[in-house]
Request: fold
Amino acid sequence: EALEAAQKRWTTSDFDVGKPLGRGKFGHVYIAREKRSNHIVALKVLFKTQLQQSQVEHQLRREVEIQSHLRHPNILRLYGYFYDQKRVYLILEYAARGELYKELQKCKYFSERRAATYVASLARALIYCHGKHVIHRDIKPENLLIGAQGELKIADFGWSVHTFNRRRTMCGTLDYLPPEMVESVEHDASVDIWSLGILCYEFLYGVPPFEAREHSETYKRIVQVDLKFPSKPIVSSSAKDLISQMLVKESTQRLALHKLLEHPWIVQNADPSGLYRG
Ligand SMILES: Cc1cc(Cn2cc(-c3c(Cl)cnc4nc(-c5cn(C)nc5C)[nH]c34)cn2)no1
Reply:
């Protein structure tokens, strides 16, 4: 429809802009309606001055380039972008049930069925991305949104890269980084498998596995893969087995994503539709 029209020159007058949905480091996200199609979108407004100060323009260009070409039910669509004197605008898919991390904070931790359903849909989205030589590199609750049917949407490809130009820069919060990125050595698509393992642990226990008061402590626990499972909440040994196969220091030994989808814990707990209806 109108939003898909390739290379249309968008301006703010094409939209009725509504309330702010959230704020990030470089700007805000508003709910908006595209006037011609009445399509509801999320309009991400970023300030050029702040982007320039943090030298992230190249990252933003990559985010737009990568996300605009990805088409998957568990990846937030980026329909287009435009800019004016002071701001850059990203026209994004609106996720009607908001941010996953708020849902996780509210529930403290998820049931095994809900966690497995989310992990399976993220694995399918990552298989799709890796098939296009894209690694996300920043899979964490803050970058996940929930669609109208309860489906998970990966957002914010600000740290994603095309694997042929692998970078060594540090990125994202420490908690989710695998050993090879914390030690800033070469990394590949298996970094997303590590982060998905961290996410699965946090879905089930409410905290990431290597959390510590000091950065230096978290760093040590990651490189030593100091993985411990608390006695509470009670979690099945099958779930622990899956997590233990993903959080492996040697990146080539991590469970492959297509193997994850065949793991008994996923097969027995994930809803095949990828929708968690509660
Ligand atoms: C700048 C900046 C802010 C953020 C974080 N952020 C993302 C959203 C967002 C997006 Cl991109 C798409 N759909 C959304 N739907 C919601 C939402 C829906 N409900 C009922 N409540 C909320 C909140 N937020 C969405 C907002 N902020 N990233 O960069």
